[in-house]
Amino acid sequence: VRLGVLVSGGGSNLQALLDACAREDFPAEVACVVSNVPTAYALERARAAGVPAVVVDHKAHASKAAFEAAILEALGATGVQWVCLAGFMRLLSADFLGRFAGRVLNVHPSLLPSFPGLHAQRQALERGVKVAGCTVHFVDAGTDTGPIIGQAAVPVLPDDDEKSLSARILVEEHRLYPLAVRLAVTGQVTLDGVRTRVAAAPS
Ligand code: GRF
């Protein structure tokens, strides 16, 4: 299965997917990486892995539709079948998502539905939760609102700050995302409304 990975930043989740795809037994390969940020380090990670890396700068397009059309062109040119958002900081339209008929995944650094949107780790600290974590979910037109495929929890420690908590969650993101991608692309995740039934829940 050919994956397209959309990025905006450092790309540590992209790296986790690249590493997983490099293993013989993993049922997917990263066919293309698209960044909306020209300087994203994630692009270096793609190049180092020999994966086509394309910049589609949202600032260089007159409209969201044109921006998304450029992304779709890059994904289409490389035969992408599933899209993984990995630190991608733009909202995608229902039209874009419809092109992939629900085959778009995202990783978010909170236990959704708590703390959607930006700075999720900071939101968790400010709310004083004792357990935080990450979620991999199908992407719908909302912000971090799609059906949940898997989650991983981490403790919030008394002396945690945004940096230490984010680092602890990131370790779990890197473990969870490839697991969830494997289940999704092999058809082991079925949808029942907003609930997913997963053959072997990635815990
Ligand atoms: C991660 O916490 C991810 O969940 C969030 O952005 C952070 C950085 O991701 N969306 P990456 O290192 O660019 O993959």
Automatic annotation (TrEMBL):
Binding site for N(1)-(5-phospho-beta-D-ribosyl)glycinamide: 11-13
Domain Formyl transferase N-terminal: 2-181
EC numbers: 2.1.2.2
Active-site positions on this chain: 108
Pathway participation: Purine metabolism; IMP biosynthesis via de novo pathway; N(2)-formyl-N(1)-(5-phospho-D-ribosyl)glycinamide from N(1)-(5-phospho-D-ribosyl)glycinamide (10-formyl THF route): step 1/1
InterPro entries associated with the record: Formyl_transf_N (IPR002376), Formyl_transf_N_sf (IPR036477), GART (IPR004607)
Annotated site (Raises pKa of active site His): 144
CC terms in the record's Gene Ontology section: cytosol
Function (record text): Catalyzes the transfer of a formyl group from 10-formyltetrahydrofolate to 5-phospho-ribosyl-glycinamide (GAR), producing 5-phospho-ribosyl-N-formylglycinamide (FGAR) and tetrahydrofolate.
Family: Belongs to the GART family.
Protein name (record): Phosphoribosylglycinamide formyltransferase
